[in-house]
Amino acid sequence: MPFIQITIAEGRDPKRKEQLIYEVTQTVSTVLDAPKENIRVLLTEVPTTHWGIAGQSISKRKEESV
Fold first, then answer.
1. Contacts (Cβ under 8 Å, ≥6 apart) of 25
2. pLDDT tens for residues 7-56?
3. Class of domain 3-65
4. Which one from 2, 14, 35, 47 is the annotated catalytic residue?
5. Residue among 60, 48, 38, 36 at smallest CA distance from 8
6. Taking the domains of the chain in order of start, what are their residue ranges?
7. 3-state class of 48 per DSSP?
8. Which of 35, 37, 48, 66 has the most CB atoms less than 10 A away?
């Protein structure tokens, strides 16, 4: 049973997350020839204050880019 874990920054639209789960499931099913019913996808959302890029949180980077 394939188990796919994806970590993303919080704030994305629920419809896009549903689409991501759907597309990942389709791709894994095709590539591994696995039944969709056996594929599990876990999305973990991380607060942007807890995710750092180049020494700054995503929240801080967004503030400075505005």
1. 36, 39, 41
2. 999 999 999 999 999 999 999 999 999 999 999 999 999 999 999 999 99
3. alpha beta
4. 2
5. 48
6. 3-65
7. helix
8. 48
